[in-house]
Amino acid sequence: MTDTHTTTAQGPQLSPRQLRKVVFGGTAGVFVEFFDYGIYGFLAGTIALVFFPPESPTAGLIMTWGIFALTFLIRPLGGLIIGAFADRKGRRAALVLSLTLMTVATAGIGFLPGYATIGMAAPILLLVLRLVQGFSAGGEVASAYSFVAENAPNRSRGFFTSLPQFGSYLAMLCGTSIGVVLSNALPADALQDWAWRVPFFIAIPLGFLGYWIRRSLQDTLAFLEAKEQGDIAANPVTATFTTPATLRRVLFAVALALLNSSGYYILFNYMPSYLNRELGFAPGEGLAVTALAVLVMLVSIPLMGRLSDAVGRRAVLIGSAVASAVLAVPCYALMAQGSFGLAVLGAMLLAAAFAGHAAVINVTLVELFPTRVRGTAYSLGYNISTAIFGGAGPLVMTALIAATAVTAIPAYYVVLTAVGTGVAALFLRDRAGKPIE
């Protein structure tokens, strides 16, 4: 029997089975995307040794993070193209497309020969596959979170839309755990010779499972109603750029997402490399600190999503921004003491402060835009912010610390982005509990 939507004053009403399928379908691609980013970050030191000349490990690491940053420059393009596709053809079609591209590119990295085998062709091929990943990820986020939010009841939209974000950090925890197992169970030469490929191959069954789930889903009620009413933009990109109100919201989205960029890519993705190279922790210790901080995120994100349904998105965003700005410097100072216990305490406090923003930012951006341009406009604002302040973050941090020997630079970066998000959130018109446009 075909699943159907019904509508009440509280928005879309789905059976528990339907809602589980929606959440799992939205989460599947987000999981694969962040699993990829996680393992790339955790294995950055090994990737540098495999794909770049071994004479200068620092230069190799900077180039490894440089490739990471370059892939973010194509995310706004992927967001525009896949986001516009989602606005014209539906969220489900965009989700299937982005997940397919992402899975192929991630698995492809696992098959690449290294510098010792094919020379400079190795980092070039790595860059090409990372660009494909960046392109697909640019359209994945807005499509996935819009898919869940457009299917969720108004009164609990924050909670349900936080669950794919829960999945993204679960993916990070899985990547961290694999990194811990590989680094502790195998000698360093085995990790560099072949074991680094294993996490990338794991994306293959994950991608197939996500593809199967997404192909079985219906599109969202919001999109189907817009289609029935003829309210589908013929050219969502043009509609976004030629509508002043929408363009202002895109710029507003860039500011709101600032802390999200530094929070994920500096507090978590860059953390194992930072603890190992800059603060002298063993690789396994750096991964363990990150894993424990991620556990805090997994507990906190659904709670913060539920809280935002009760008190509003604005209050949660501002509270998280203030907490992150206040705690960043002292928490990084704790990590710099060289004690594993103090490093865990600092990382866990930062995770608790950041969790509110992580849980709420995506539902806030969904609620910021109307259905006819949501995929395009949301993707554009989110990906511009992520490209400038997120993807380039590890490269900038590594280069600045190498040039200045100031290991507290990541803390100042978190403070800067937290202040930017906090100021922007002051002007947010809260739509928690209200129908989306």
UniProtKB/TrEMBL annotation:
One of the Pfam families matching this protein, by short name: Sugar_tr
Membrane topology, from the record: Multi-pass membrane protein
Keyword annotations of the record: Cell membrane, Membrane, Symport, Transmembrane, Transmembrane helix, Transport
UniProt keyword Transmembrane present: yes
InterPro entries per record: H+-coupled_symporters (IPR051084), MFS (IPR011701), MFS_dom (IPR020846), MFS_sugar_transport-like (IPR005828), MFS_trans_sf (IPR036259), Sugar_transporter_CS (IPR005829)
Source superkingdom: Bacteria
Transmembrane region(s): 22-52, 64-86, 93-112, 124-148, 169-188, 194-213, 250-267, 287-304, 316-335, 341-368, 380-403, 409-428
Annotated GO MF terms: symporter activity
Compartments (UniProt record): Cell membrane
Domain Major facilitator superfamily (MFS) profile residue range list: 22-432
Location, primary (coarse class): membrane
Gene Ontology annotations for the cellular component aspect, listed alphabetically: plasma membrane
Protein function: May be a proton symporter involved in the uptake of osmolytes such as proline and glycine betaine.
Family indicated by similarity: Belongs to the major facilitator superfamily. Metabolite:H+ Symporter (MHS) family (TC 2.A.1.6) family.
Protein name: Putative proline/betaine transporter
Organism: Mycetocola reblochoni
